[in-house]
Amino acid sequence: MSEKLDLNVIRQQITELDQELLVLFAKRRALTLNVAKSKVQQVRPIRDKQREQELLISLIKRGKDLGLDAHYVTSIFQSIIEDSVLNQQAYLQSLANPDIQVPTVSVAFLGDKGSYSYLASHRYFSRRAEKIVEHGCQSFADILQQVESGQVDYGMLPIENTSSGSINEVYDLLQHTNLSIVGEITQPIEHCLLTAVNTSLDKIKTIYAHGQPIAQCSNFLDKQRDIRIEYCDSTADAMAQVAELQSDSIAVVGSEEGGHLYQLHALEQSIANQNENHSRFILVARKAVDVAEQIPAKTALILSTGQKAGALVECLLVLKEKGINMCKLESRPIQGRPWEEMFYIDVEANLKNFALQEAISVMAEHTNFIKVLGCYPIEHISPTNVPSSEI
């Protein structure tokens, strides 16, 4: 006869083991910071991809001996490696910019608590500050004004989405600000249909949402019959209204994580047009930052070539000749100057890099206007690859 299992005892054992794991994770993180400190003295790159790959292969083999699935082990340690890289980068940046390291930061973002900009702000500063003073705004222009006037330290702005593309209003505003881009973060966007009360999809008559989620969930929304779309200034505003109305006939498009802050629950999950839906945010401040040499960096440029034939091509050829990778090119019309456009270019290079400095100098000869919008660490950490033969 098999021994009777006590579920409460088992759960207590799991809880105790989870607590032990947290202690081990903290010890590992402390060791990776020591790695970062050693790289300060030797000026070595943050990532050693060969070392990461060898580590994962070794862990996968050990995991198999313990009865653990290779994909499970890979997923866990890819997250641990990402956390290690980001923490090392944050540490090196704190050394490179000692005058801006404070325990409390104030951040302006679109909407209120629960908005995607709110979530991105908290995620970005989770490893950089002990406390965040939140300033919800009703427009992108308000965010820039709050930072420019010194009311807040930083502004978080969505710049592009993998589903709906570039956010043109933000690009237009960047033409007229003296703020610098000092950081970036890519936030996974998991759109759900949220409600305040238990209901069913056939009862929904009105859906509240911000314009961006509406565009990103157009396939799902187009299939709904006799439903009115109510546009809101932000996702947070939409969630707040649905929470207040407490109706079984209304819903909101937003994240399940943000919805929890308003006691909303998911009626439908994963309603975005694309399964892999991410938004890239930029962080702006009054003062530019220095990027440590060991950290992969991006530099954002803005330029105008007027109506000179081939001028943009000449600029891009300069980047090619200098071996500088361009990762983003966006054009926007210049207000008050018909048929002229402003070009935004992101390159993967540190502004301290002599090749980039030379490139900017040569590009200036082909432009009417050129300006550096900012140089900042690359925040997106590509997962460590493991050969399929090892999985």
TrEMBL record:
Residues 106-286 form the Prephenate dehydratase domain. Residues 300-377 form the ACT domain. It comes from the Bacteria. It is found in: Cytoplasm. GO terms for cellular component: cytoplasm. Keywords: Amino-acid biosynthesis, Aromatic amino acid biosynthesis, Cytoplasm, Isomerase, Lyase, Multifunctional enzyme, Phenylalanine biosynthesis. The keyword Amino-acid biosynthesis applies. InterPro entries: ACT-like_dom_sf (IPR045865), ACT_dom (IPR002912), Chor_mutase/pphenate_deHydtase (IPR008242), Chorismate_II_sf (IPR036263), CM_dom_sf (IPR036979), CM_II_prokaryot (IPR002701), CM_P_1 (IPR010952), Preph_deHydtase (IPR001086). Its main location: cytoplasm. Pathway: Amino-acid biosynthesis; L-phenylalanine biosynthesis; phenylpyruvate from prephenate: step 1/1; Metabolic intermediate biosynthesis; prephenate biosynthesis; prephenate from chorismate: step 1/1. GO terms for biological process: chorismate metabolic process; L-phenylalanine biosynthetic process. PROSITE patterns: ACT (PS51671), CHORISMATE_MUT_2 (PS51168), PREPHENATE_DEHYDR_3 (PS51171). Substrate binds at residues 11, 28, 39, 48, 52, 84, 88. Residues 1-92 form the Chorismate mutase domain. One of its GO terms (molecular function) is prephenate dehydratase activity. Its EC number is 4.2.1.51, 5.4.99.5. It catalyses: prephenate + H(+) = 3-phenylpyruvate + CO2 + H2O; chorismate = prephenate. Pfam families: CM_2, PDT. PANTHER family: PREPHENATE DEHYDRATASE P PROTEIN, PREPHENATE DEHYDRATASE-RELATED. Catalyzes the Claisen rearrangement of chorismate to prephenate and the decarboxylation/dehydration of prephenate to phenylpyruvate. This is Bifunctional chorismate mutase/prephenate dehydratase. It comes from Litorilituus sediminis. The lineage of its organism: Bacteria, Pseudomonadati, Pseudomonadota, Gammaproteobacteria, Alteromonadales.
